[in-house]
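SAMPLE LOG
Freezer: B-3
Tube label: C17
Construct: single chain, 338 aa
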Amino acid sequence: MRQCTCTLLMQDRKESFNMEHGDVIRVPAGATTYLVNNNSDKTLRIAKLLQPVNNPGRFEEFFPAGSRNSESYFSVFSNDILESAFNTPREQLEHGFKQGQQQQGQGIVMRAPREQLQALSQAASSRRRGDRQSQGPFNLRQQRPVHSNNYGQFFEARPEEFNQLQDMDASVSCIEINQQAMMVPHFNSKATHLIMVVEGNGLVEMACPYLANQSQEIMGQQERQGEQSGRYMKVTAQLSPGDVFVIPAGHPVALVAQNQNLRILGFGLYAQNNKRNFLAGQEDNIIMHMDREARQLAFGPEMEQIFSKQQQSYFVPTQQGRSRNQHLSSILEFAGVI
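STRUCTURE (predicted):
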């Protein structure tokens, strides 16, 4: 079902796409865009990763048409410039821009007649969304999951694989964790991830050396600037829809879904050739890739059995989820179902 229509205006062409839930599109710098919500009874929600061109860290929008809370960039030009540019008398220009501002009085988001919305939607390209080698939109959740099992799944579009993301050096990911399950502790080798909670509630826990060092400086326990304490501070927070947080590169982190399924959206910065290193589970566990002798020297022989005890990978049940599953199995066995 078409959820929205996105139109991009560029110097040499116009492109318009009907987009669905889970679609990702790259908007080139300098493109003028407008969006149509094709569902009259549902709010359209989009997440943007902005990479400013002129002033790093500060993004400014430029509007050709004025409205209640946005000024048209035409308004700063003198009448002589506008008369010459549009070959139109000043009085007609003033009347036209004034009429446009009154029509756009609702703001940058406005209601429009159904006939106009349908026309914009029908004018969109019938060409199917792009694949990995094209520049068109693609659907993230229609890709094969990078990691998946009965407790969750992880979708990711990487710049090495999608042309749309290469020059941005960015990745886009969607993590879905089932109720009372978790994504095991892991860290990213070089990518910093910006995370937004889309649905559900949960918990994040992360190891952070910087906050530990700052805390020691405040307490007067660190004598020389830049001295490494070798200690970490646990950063933990409850998660709910709309929450946004940052996972810096190299920081071990775990994500937990509590009494609801948890869905989060992520943008990875400096994502080219990033590696996700898992610290628990059967597959891709870098601890288990250590030589046995090195692992025993680092952690002790008793930890050898502990590291190999987890039979799942990537997503695992929490203690509460495991207890619930065991209780359900006991009930089914008693009933003779299994």
